[in-house]
């Protein structure tokens, strides 16, 4: 089986047609689904360390909570330390290891978001970079709180923001 990297592709309504925002720091989170012994280390910190003999729950078992359940709670990492190290066994028992070059994935330090040009209204803070190991696939997402000039829910004065989870990169092993 060939290993293939897949990057988010620009298109209508995509981050490419959005206002250009950049970041100097980011938050980080890591999650493992349908794996054995998943270990994710980044910036000198172990973010996930699962037992070798217990199959982790599947993302499908989360229902409507997936993928929105994933967040980046390790705060304020300078761009970019060494790539995250990932070691795991897929649910078929095959061992895998990878270094995920998030500096390359987020080349240019561009924030991925869906707010149209001219629609951003204020500071975005640090975006979240989320690494997901799901059986034989690693996905990297970005989630940024982007304040907007217009409400996102008509009539709701508390909806002047978007915080979409956007897939930036994916690779099957």
What does the model show?
The structure is a single chain. The protein has 173 residues and is mainly β. 2% of the residues lie in helices and 39% in strands. The chain contains one helix and twelve strands; from the N terminus they run βββββββαβββββ. It has one helix at 102-105, and strands spanning 4-7, 25-33, 35-42, 45-49, 74-78, 85-90, 95-99, 128-134, 137-143, 146-147, 161-162, 165-172. The strands form three sheets. Strands 1-12-9-8-2-5 form a six-stranded mixed beta sheet, with no helix packed on it. The longest helix is centred in the middle third of the chain and has 4 residues, at 102-105. It is globular.
Strand content: 35-45%
Count of β-strands = 12
User: What's the N-to-C terminus distance?
Assistant: 8 Å
Q: Structural class per helix/strand content?
A: mainly beta
Question: Secondary-structure element order, as H and E?
Answer: EEEEEEEHEEEEE
Largest sheet, order of strands side by side? Answer: 1-12-9-8-2-5
Please give the largest β-sheet.
6 strands, mixed
Instruction: Tell me, rounded to a whole number, the average pLDDT.
Output: 91
Low-confidence stretches: 9-13
- Rg estimate, integer Å: 17 Å
Helix tally?
1
Short key terms for the protein model shown above:
mainly beta; single chain; 2% helix; 173 residues; 6-stranded mixed beta sheet; 12 strands; 4-stranded antiparallel beta sheet
Could you provide a short overview of the structure?
The protein has 173 residues and is mainly β.
Secondary structure elements and pairings:
Blueprint: E1 4-7, E2 25-33, E3 35-42, E4 45-49, E5 74-78, E6 85-90, E7 95-99, H1 102-105, E8 128-134, E9 137-143, E10 146-147, E11 161-162, E12 165-172
Parallel strand pairs: 2-8
Antiparallel strand pairs: 1-12, 2-5, 3-4, 3-6, 6-7, 8-9, 9-12, 10-11
């Amino acid at each position: 089986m060939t290993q293939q990297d897949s990057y988010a592709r620009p298109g209508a309504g995509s981050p490419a047609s959005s206002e250009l925002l950049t970041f100097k720091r980011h938050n980080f989170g890591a999650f493992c689904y349908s794996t054995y012994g998943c270990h994710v280390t980044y910036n000198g910190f172990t973010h996930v360390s699962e037992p070798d003999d217990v199959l982790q729950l599947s993302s499908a078992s989360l229902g409507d909570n997936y993928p929105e359940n994933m967040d980046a709670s390790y705060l304020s990492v300078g761009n970019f330390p060494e790539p995250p190290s990932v070691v795991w066994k897929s649910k078929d028992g095959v061992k895998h290891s990878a270094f995920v070059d998030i500096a390359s994935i987020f080349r240019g330090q561009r924030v991925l978001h869906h707010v149209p040009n001219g629609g951003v209204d204020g500071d975005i803070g640090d975006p979240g970079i989320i690494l997901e190991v799901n059986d034989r696939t690693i996905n990297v997402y970005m989630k940024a709180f982007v304040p907007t000039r217009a409400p996102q829910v008509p009539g709701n004065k508390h909806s002047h923001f978007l915080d979409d989870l956007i897939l930036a990169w994916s690779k099957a092993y």
